[in-house]
Design brief:
This protein has helices at about 25-30, 270-280, 300-305; strands at about 15, 35, 50-55, 55-60, 75-80, 85-100, 105-115, 120, 125, 130-145, 150-165, 180-185, 205-210, 225-230, 235-245, 295-300, 315-320, 330, 335-340, 350, 355-370, 375-380, 385-390, 395. The chain has 3 helices and 24 strands. The chain starts with 12 loop residues before the first strand and ends in a 7-residue tail after the last strand. The strands form 3 sheets. Strands 1, 2, 3, 4, 5, 6, 7, 8, 9, 10 and 11 form an 11-stranded antiparallel β-sheet that branches. Strands 12-16-13-15-14-17 form a 6-stranded mixed beta barrel. The model is unreliable at about 1-30 and about 165-175 (pLDDT under 50).
Length: about 400
């Protein structure tokens, strides 16, 4: 969507963002918190459409990109800081953001925490991001947006504090292992850049979800989905590398208490689906555009054609794997065939994309395979009942994998 180019009269304001998500801690608790600042000058290949100047962190290109519906109608940039190992586990991280915004620009600090089972979802940190379990590492990112030409967003500093929250009930994690049936569309757009900075190539393997909360950094599968046809005959495990379709703040898989927007909708129902099928929000998305299909997930071409072998847009079953628990295997080389049994002679049931983090129930011995990481007869049984050779798994985290 191309927004009109017009000169807007703006009055820049310097603000300290402080949204009250949880009660403020007492002086003693605040004094005990671990404090640090994010070095905003370290802009590198992990960051998307941002640059650092004497004035602070800002969008490199503040113009909303001319992109086809249903992609985002705003310009955005993401600065990703390095993970910080805490001196002791914490359940809350708060951010004080020194920012200057005007004319439709926004600046937001978000954090995620590392637990034994992997990363939490990204949460807004101004006022306090609360985790349901203690975290030992924290990563910070700054999201800048501009809704129209002339909008500005500059961040001078981000200061963080990690401590123990008085309560975690306000933002309790979603139920583990969430799976919903949603409508899938094909991304295409070869040559364009995704929200995490990945340049789309022919036959690519990733997905887009309409919320940045589950957006994985480039070349990681920190947030991975399992997408299956409704018959279950084909599945693909794929990382979440883009934001869309239609909305950018619709984490519909979460409980209402956690969901960013559209809290009155049933858990698992995308806003675009409600708008298209029932006229919710006047049949429009968060940007005011008329919703033309009920899509809740976008599939890159390789996921669409090769992984699921779809020929047209279709309903699919999506498992949001970071909401589950147990051991995870990182697919180091792919796309990797997932099979019906522990050998290459068994039928192929789909694919696991490179970088995908797949849930491993247990392992069996089968055909010996020579792969990029080892030669082994170990085959990992995934949560869906399919198998992948351990020769292609670069790492396992989240617990010990038992023998089946």
């Amino acid at each position: 969507m191309i927004l009109p180019h017009r000169r807007a009269r703006t009055a820049a304001l310097t603000v300290i963002l402080a949204l009250a998500l949880v009660p403020s801690p007492g002086p003693a608790l605040a004094a005990a918190g671990e404090r640090w600042s994010t070095d905003l000058s370290r802009v590198d290949a992990d960051d998307v459409n941002v640059r650092h100047t004497r004035a602070g962190l800002r969008l490199a290109d503040p113009r909303p990109a001319p992109a086809r519906v249903p992609r985002s109608a705003v310009a955005e940039g993401i600065f990703l800081g390095p993970p910080r190992t805490l001196t002791r586990p914490a359940t809350r991280v708060r951010a004080a953001v020194d920012a200057r915004t005007a004319a439709g620009g926004t600046a937001e600090a978000q954090v995620r925490g590392w637990r034994a089972v992997g990363w939490t979802e990204w949460r807004e940190a101004t006022g306090g991001a609360v985790f349901d379990r203690p975290v030992t590492r924290v990563q910070t990112r700054v999201v800048l947006t501009a809704s129209r030409p002339g909008a500005t967003a500059e961040v001078r500093a981000v200061r963080l504090t990690a401590d123990t929250a008085d309560t975690v009930a306000a933002v309790a994690a979603a139920t583990p292992g969430l799976t919903y049936r949603v409508y899938a569309t094909r991304i295409g757009l070869v040559g364009e850049v995704t929200a995490n900075g990945h340049t789309i190539v022919p036959g690519d393997h990733f997905v887009a979800l309409p919320s940045r909360r589950g957006l994985a950094p480039a070349n990681t599968g920190d947030y991975t989905v399992r997408v299956c046809t409704t018959t279950g005959s084909r599945c693909e495990y794929a990382p979440v590398w883009d934001v869309g379709p239609w909305n950018t703040r619709d984490d519909y898989w979460n409980l209402s208490a956690v969901r960013e927007n559209w809290k009155d909708l049933p858990q698992g129902r995308p806003q675009a689906q409600a708008a298209y099928q029932y006229g919710y929000n006047g049949g429009r998305d968060q940007f005011g555009r008329v919703v033309l299909n009920p899509a809740g997930v976008d599939l890159a071409d390789g996921t669409f054609w090769d992984g699921l072998q779809l020929t047209t847009n279709a309903w699919v079953d999506v498992a949001y794997l970071w909401t589950g628990g147990g051991p995870r295997g990182v697919v180091g080389d792919g796309p990797l065939n997932i099979r019906a049994g522990a050998g290459t002679g068994y039928a192929v049931r789909g694919l696991a994309a490179r970088y995908a983090n797949v849930p491993i129930e247990c392992y069996v011995t089968g055909q010996t395979v020579a792969g990029p990481y080892r030669t082994t007869n170990r085959w990992n049984r995934l949560a869906g009942g399919q198998y992948v050779s351990h020769a292609y798994v670069s790492a396992v985290y989240g617990g010990t994998v038992p023998l089946c």
